[in-house]
Amino acid sequence: MKSSYACQTFLELVNIDCVSKEEEAVSKVIQQKLTELGISFQEDKAGKSIGGNAGNLYVYLPGTLPGSVFFSAHMDRVIGGKGIRPHVEQDRITSSGDTILAADDLSGVAGVLDGLRRIRESDLPHKGVEVLFTVAEEIGLLGSKHFDYSRIRSKEGYLFDGDGRLGTIVKSAPSQAVLEIEVFGKAAHAGCEPEKGINAIIGLSRILASIRDGRLDTESTANFSYIQGGKSSTNIVCDYAYCKGETRSKHHENMLDYIAYFHRHAKEAVGDLNVVVNTKDTLVCEAFDFDRDTAVVKNAIRVCGDMGIPCEVVDSGGCMDANIFNVHGMETVGMGTGMEEVHTFSEYQWLEDLHRIGEMIERITR
Ligand SMILES: [Zn+2]
Hints:
By secondary structure, the protein is of the alpha+beta class. The chain has helices spanning 5-14, 24-36, 46-50, 103-121, 142-145, 200-210, 252-269, 295-307, 321-327, 351-364; strands spanning 41-43, 57-61, 68-74, 87-88, 92-94, 128-134, 156-163, 168-173, 175-184, 214-217, 220-229, 240-249, 276-285, 288-289, 312-315, 331-340, 348-350. Strands 1, 2, 3, 4, 5, 6, 7, 8, 14, 15, 16 and 17 form a twelve-stranded mixed sheet that branches. The chain has a five-stranded antiparallel sheet with strand order 10-11-12-9-13.
């Protein structure tokens, strides 16, 4: 079992140093695997557009049944993913504890490659198969945002990038936006003429002390996580302060309401302090939320049943490439791959799940 195609591919990919925008070496191995399977692929120009060294890889495998299905996984990983030394244990693969494992999302990549291999080596009829291996997912879904969707023919998609066991079906993910505040005050000598200065830190403090954040309602959150500014010399009144945060909501409209409030509040909260306040919001992605009786969710549930694995339909609090695919008209759910504790040094991958992703993919195309 340990030496399955999926497991070998996973270990090979994990051993390659990689971060977002530096996926070239990972991409080259995937390309080599596809070539070995006799499957053609195209690399797009996303790498150039985002300042990375690799583009998204697109695969189309014609089917012998009508229709086509879309699968995806991302090639990059979060920081902390260089020098990974994976340990294969009885039922799981771990890192050595001083790096992540990058099961997010190389379990998805290895599983999708295994699915392609199985479809290729089988004589059974199958639908057309489209695959997109994306870049720079972890830094704002950049690869999927820069892909040209006009070539996509599938209406139904499965993104193998969910944490939790194989059989986890992610039916919703939130909208998300990045929020930034800049406060401009006025510098002055703090000892000789402080009354000529305007302290930007005080302005920013007023905004943050009174803004609504944390859990906004049952489906929305906001978090201001980073501040910058000030002078290390205590004799200057601070003239600049900056803050960055984010907001999310399962309902896109609710998020837009909060963003409008955020802009208004930041201007109003400084009161009579004569600072200039600039605010900015940047959309990361738009929410999706499927009913359980949507075709793509029902199909996923059916395949879990056929495979005899427990199925759990969940809502995600995090954005994924599926947010982008759904905006482009492909009904795409997230699928658990058996990765756990992702983005931490405790990350691990269930071996059994890694072995069976390819089988799940093959069954979905039948
Ligand atoms: Zn991921």
